[in-house]
Amino acid sequence: MSSSYGGYHSQSYAPSAPEQPPYSNYNHTSSSTSNSSSSSFPAGTPQDVIRSFQMVDRDRSGFIDERELHQALSSGFHHFNFRTIRLLLFLFKNPHQPLTIGPKEFAALWSCLGHWRGIFERYDRDRSGKIDPLELRDALYGIGYAVPGSVLQLLLSKYGDGSGRRVELGFDSFVECGMIIKGLTDKFKEKDTRYTGSATLSYDAFMTMVLPFLVSYD
Ligand SMILES: [Ca+2]
């Protein structure tokens, strides 16, 4: 169940799966008292991460939505487009709440983005502030994903401006590409237990694997 993304719960996408139970008590007790939601952050969460969350969680509900997440990440990291935000939301959402992020997920997401930031900076070799196709290939290879050129091309075709010019990815699009490749590959590996490079999987399993990565795509 645990994954390196801080836990996304793929079984909730299985068409045959029962409905998720309705929202149940998630850690924070009485929402009306003014206790800060920091009590729900994992121990050791940096103060600036907690502050970022609280700054956008204006109603102190202990959860943030798409717009609030966009605000928090854009001021903390870099401007994020909403497509990336929607993917992040799907991958990190609280299992009991549709499309919202609680403190625990926010801390996991923030630390995950920190890792991607490090990779981005390491592989932006010409310091252009963008990742070009070769830099992307090397970055993915560097973290253990030898992605075929044809797959990379297909992936990158989503990010062009239609002019046919070479695609360059900002941090948000880079994170998106990285998470799609990493997420799908890791999901595949779960089915390919003997690391043969091929796997047999059911229709349900296939759809469950792929769908979360498509829903953010408009
Ligand atoms: Ca570059």
TrEMBL record:
Species for this entry: Glycine max
SUPFAM superfamilies according to UniProt: EF-hand
Biased composition regions of type Low complexity, renumbered to the chain: 1-13, 23-40
SMART domains on file: EFh
Protein name in the entry: EF-hand domain-containing protein
Keyword terms: Calcium
UniProt KW Calcium keyword: yes
One GO molecular-function entry: calcium ion binding
Region (Disordered): 1-44
PROSITE patterns given in the database record: EF_HAND_1, EF_HAND_2
EF-hand domain residues: 44-79, 111-146
